Amino acid sequence: MRRYARTLAAFALATTVATGTVGWASGNSQQPLTGPPPGTAAWRADHALGRELPDPGRSTPAEVARFFRGLTGAQQQALVVRHPLVVGNLDGVPAELRYRANALSLRAGHDPRYAHLKESPRRQILAFDPRGRGQVAEVFGDLRTARHVAVVVPGSDIDAGTFDRTNDVYGTPAGMAKALYARTGSGSAVIAWAGYTTPVGLGIDAATGSLAEAGAGRLERFTDGLAADGVPAPAVFCHSYGSVVCGLAASRLHARDLVVLGSPGMRADDVADLHTDARVWAAKDATDWIGDVPNVEVAGLGQGPDPAAPEFGARRVPAEDARGHTGYFVPGTDSLRAFAAITAGKAR
Description:
With about 350 residues, this protein is of the alpha/beta class. It is built from 13 helices and 8 strands. The protein has helices spanning about 1-20, 20-25, 40-45, 60-70, 75-80, 85, 95-110, 175-185, 205, 210-230, 240-250, 270-275, 335-345, and strands at about 125-130, 135-140, 150-155, 190-195, 235-240, 255-260, 280-285, 315. An 8-stranded mixed beta sheet has the order 1-2-4-3-5-6-7-8, sandwiched between helices. It is globular, with a radius of gyration of 20 Å.
């Protein structure tokens, strides 16, 4: 009987997406941004150092890190100035060089969508790709001295323009990361990572895994880059559709903890199906509308079982006083306190 009910729910989901929203959803269908950073062609053609530069499309973050460690300070800075978009987005490059490269790219740009990202010269922008809707990552705290690190992976409707919007602050990667950093303190660093193409609205993209598959590869490479730069293995917090990205990346993700909140599913049957050594946590409050989404996956539609359900096997994060889909990082909530404890390695 339970299987029959789940099949009916899946059918309802498929019918809703395929019929009721098809016109709207098709108009908002997104093409994932993949491949090496902008400016790669000029980078590959640059032989000013008397040797080939690491290929952004083929070199691993560890290989990139080794290359930069072999350069003098002057050589590193020369590459920052000549190729800011590549250096600023190339995983494995030391964070300090990426900050300067992205500051140069932002100052040189004239797109009004990104003007807010350069309002303060003290912002630590770890990635900035102006293509498409724009992608960005920002660091709160000092990655070089942090004993504990967290990465926040957002869900739908997030890009460089909405990364730190002033409405619904705790539904943005910047707002979530700031709140977590304020709670964990100076011995930590928190990265807001909007480094993949997210769905727009609740159409086909949000009901399938195609954008998550592309995002998973980018997230894996990003965490590999942190490791190559000597950053401690992070706790990765995955909100909403971001948890689909994290579920697909889990088996290859360089992470100590994997925390999903407001999740529609992780494209996995249970924790064992994630094939990860990271500790897996889940939070869902009773007022979150995500609870109305059928937790099924049929014919590519739906994201699978609820990670917050006991049978999934994730560790529970208290979220009774969180409100709505974007209330998990609100200061004063039990969920934010638990997130801070997870980040600091104090939660069990």
